[in-house]
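Backbone-to-sequence.
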C-alpha cells in the first residue's frame, strides 16, 4: 500500500544550504549593535517515563539559523574584529556515549557541515560566555527554554554588577530576540517553501490513504496509524502535532486526540494531521463520511464549509489583511447557516463577535502562520493592526462547523447532530495569487465520494 503511494511523491528537496543559514544570521545581526551578544539554547530533553525520553526536537529558531538539531547545544553570535562571529557549543565526540546514544558530529562536524565560524565543547560555555559578556552591553537571550542556560546568563550578568557600577562596562540589558527572529521567519525563502511543499505532499497522500481505508468498523487509531505510518515511510520525521482523528461526536471536539473509538457507517470522520519534514510543518484537515457517501445533512454542512474555505483562500492576496480570509470564511459560513435555518439572526447580527450565533458553531480562527512551527512565529497584529499579507508568508485556511449534540451550552439542531466538519489547507502568498501547498489532498465532494473506501489493501 505505502510503496505504491510513494511513487506519487517527488524526490526530497535539497536541504537548506550552509550559505543560506549564514545569510539568515547576517540578516539578524544587521539589526544588532556591535556590543550585542546573542545566546540561543537548545531545549532540554523531556522525560516520557523512567529512563525514557521523548524523541528530541530542538528549537525552531536554532534550526532556522543553523540547521543544527542536536540537544545540549548553545548558539552564540558576537561582534569581533570587524565582523559577526557565530559559534556553536555542542556535545563533544565520545565513543562510549556514541555507542549507546548514536553518532555525534562533535566540534569538527559542526564547523565542517554547519553555518558556524567556530565550534566548542559544550563544557566550555560558562567560561567563554563569561569573557564575551565583558564586551557586551545587551544580551539577546530568550528565557524559559533552557533553565540551565537561563541561570548561566543571569549569574554571568550579575557577576558584572560591580564592573558596571565602577567602570560602566558590562551588559545592562537582557532582551528577548524572539520578535526579531519571528519577523525573519515570517517570510519563507524558496528553500523553505521546497521543504514545506514536500511535507505537504506527504501529508496529502497520507490523508488520501486514510480515506481509502475508511469503512464501517474501522477505528480512529487504525486510520491514525495509516497516516502516521505513511509519514515515516515517506521520510518525514513524524507528525508536526499530535494527530486528531475523531468520528461522530468526536469530530466536534476541536483538538480531540484520544483516537480510540470505532467508526460507524453513518458518521463523519474529521482528521487533522500533518507531517514534519526537516523541521517544517504541514497541517491538513479533511472530513469525510465513513460510508463513502454524504447524507443530505452531512453534504449541506460540508458544502458550506468548503465554500467558506474557497472564499478564504481567494482572500489570500498580497496586500490583503491577515484578517481578510477569516472575515470571508465567517461571512460564507453565516450566510449558509442562515439559509439552512440554523441561525435566525440577520447576517450582521450572526457575525457579531460577542452576540452573533455563528460563534456557537464556529468558535476558532481561520488561520495561523505555518513554517518551522505548526503555529509559526510571527506577530498577527503588529501594534494592534492586522498584518498586510506579503509574498512568502504561509498560513493555514481552516474553517469548520461543529454540531456537538453532547454540548450543554447550545441547542444543537437535530438534523445536524454530531456532524463536525473542518477543511484545512496550507497556503503560500505569492504575487500571482494564493498557492495551496496541500492541493494534492482530495477535497471536493465528488473526489471524496470516489475515493473513500476504495482500493483497500
Ligand atoms: N492542528 C492544529 C491546528 O490546526 O491548528
Ligand atoms: Mn491549523
Ligand atoms: Mn490542523
Amino acid at each position: 500500500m505505502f510503496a505504491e503511494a510513494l511513487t506519487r511523491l517527488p524526490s526530497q528537496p535539497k536541504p537548506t544550504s550552509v550559505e543560506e543559514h549564514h545569510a539568515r544570521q547576517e540578516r539578524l545581526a544587521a539589526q544588532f549593535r556591535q556590543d550585542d551578544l546573542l545566546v540561543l539554547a537548545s531545549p532540554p530533553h523531556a522525560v516520557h517515563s523512567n529512563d525514557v525520553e521523548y524523541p528530541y526536537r530542538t528549537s525552531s529558531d536554532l534550526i532556522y539559523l543553523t540547521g543544527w538539531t542536536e540537544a545540549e547545544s548553545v548558539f552564540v553570535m558576537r561582534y569581533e574584529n570587524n565582523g559577526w562571529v557565530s559559534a556553536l557549543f555542542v556535545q563533544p565526540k565520545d565513543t562510549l556515549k556514541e555507542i549507546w546514544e548514536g553518532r555525534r558530529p562533535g566540534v569538527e562536524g559542526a564547523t565542517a557541515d554547519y553555518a558556524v565560524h567556530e565550534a566548542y565543547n559544550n563544557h566550555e560555555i560558562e567560561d567563554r560566555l563569561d569573557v564575551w559578556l565583558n564586551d557586551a552591553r545587551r544580551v539577546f537571550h530568550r528565557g524559559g527554554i533552557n533553565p540551565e542556560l537561563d541561570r548561566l546568563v543571569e549569574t554571568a550578568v550579575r557577576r558584572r554588577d560591580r564592573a558596571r557600577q565602577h567602570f560602566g562596562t558590562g551588559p545592562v540589558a537582557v532582551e528577548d530576540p524572539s520578535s526579531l527572529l519571528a519577523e525573519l521567519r515570517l517570510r519563507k525563502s524558496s528553500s523553505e517553501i521546497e521543504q514545506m511543499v514536500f511535507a505537504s505532499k506527504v501529508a496529502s497522500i497520507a490523508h488520501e490513504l486514510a480515506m481509502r481505508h475508511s469503512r464501517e468498523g474501522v477505528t480512529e487509531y487504525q486510520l491514525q496509524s495509516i497516516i502516521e505510518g505513511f509519514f515515516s515511510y515517506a521520510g518525514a520525521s513524524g507528525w508536526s502535532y499530535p494527530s486528531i482523528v475523531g468520528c461522530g461526536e468526536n469530530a466536534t471536539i476541536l483538538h480531540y486526540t484520544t483516537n480510540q473509538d470505532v467508526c460507524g457507517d453513518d458518521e463523519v470522520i474529521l482528521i487533522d494531521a500533518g507531517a514534519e519534514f526537516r523541521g517544517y510543518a504541514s497541517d491538513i484537515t479533511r472530513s469525510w463520511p465513513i460510508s463513502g457517501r454524504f447524507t443530505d445533512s452531512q453534504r449541506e454542512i460540508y458544502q458550506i464549509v468548503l465554500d467558506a474555505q474557497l472564499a478564504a483562500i481567494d482572500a489570500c492576496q498580497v496586500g490583503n489583511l491577515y484578517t481578510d480570509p477569516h472575515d470571508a470564511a465567517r461571512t460564507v459560513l453565516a450566510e449558509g447557516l442562515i439559509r439552512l435555518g440554523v441561525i435566525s439572526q440577520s447576517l450582521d447580527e450572526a457575525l457579531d463577535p460577542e452576540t452573533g450565533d455563528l460563534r456557537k458553531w464556529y468558535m476558532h480562527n481561520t488561520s495561523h502562520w505555518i513554517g518551522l512551527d505548526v503555529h509559526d512565529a510571527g506577530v498577527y497584529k503588529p501594534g494592534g493592526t492586522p498584518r498586510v499579507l506579503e509574498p512568502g508568508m504561509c498560513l493555514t485556511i481552516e474553517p469548520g462547523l461543529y454540531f456537538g449534540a453532547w454540548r450543554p451550552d447550545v441547542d444543537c439542531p437535530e438534523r445536524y447532530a454530531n456532524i463536525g466538519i473542518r477543511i484545512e489547507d496550507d497556503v503560500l502568498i505569492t504575487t500571482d495569487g494564493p498557492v495551496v501547498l496541500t492541493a494534492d489532498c482530495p477535497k471536493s465532494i465528488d473526489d471524496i465520494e470516489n475515493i473513500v473506501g476504495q482500493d483497500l489493501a
